[in-house]
Amino acid sequence: MKRSxxxxxxxxxxxxxxxxxxxxxxxxxxAQYPLSGPMASYSGPFLREGTExxxxxxxxxxxxGKGRTLKVIIEDNAGDRNQAKITLVGVPDKPGxxxxxxxxxxxxxxxxxxxxxxxxxxxxxDFSFTIPRVDVxxxxxxxxxxxxxxxxxxxxxxxxxxxxxxxxxxxxSHSGVAAKMFDVLSxxxxxxxxxxxxxxxxxxxxxxxxxxxxxxxxxxxxGLDQVPLGK
Length: 231
Hints:
The chain is of the alpha+beta class. The protein has a domain at 2-76. The chain has helices at residues 2-19, 43-60, 97-107, 136-150, 177-187, 211-221, and strands spanning 26-31, 69-92, 115-117, 124-132, 154-168, 192-197, 201-207. The longest helix is centred in the first third of the chain and has 18 residues, at 2-19.
């Protein structure tokens, strides 16, 4: 949070200076951050979070003047092949089961990312989640023991997966982004294993061998290839 706050102050000053003389009621600034590549785990998320904090602060305090707002549209697509999918089949569908499954994983300091629970059938369900691939050997004994305790039928792990994400603050005001993403992947013959969404991100888990293909297709479909990277 400290890094994000420092970035927020710096970005706020820059954006206020850049937009302060504009006459429109809404000042729109586009931003593209390194959300993929070797710097993704540091530069992209911290810069994005700092920018969002700065924009919120500027608008809440009406720093651009009464009735004027600042809006930033951040867009990129990112890929992550360092994931593994864990699936428990035949999990009893009852209150507290997710906590019993993921609690021991959290205590082992293993990060859980995407979580999917299927529709219950005859009081049983399938429960899938992703973790960093490097943590599979550490996680599996814990998960297998927990699966036995709760009465799950089986546990499987799929390591040859990748996560592709479309990130953009503009998603909040643009309908059809998810549908377009799914259509692009379908057109390229890429099967989607898992989906998660938020206000600024849509992520899909796919077969690892299709990650580069999916990234290129999404990059072209959403016009990201029209902006030089790093600008």
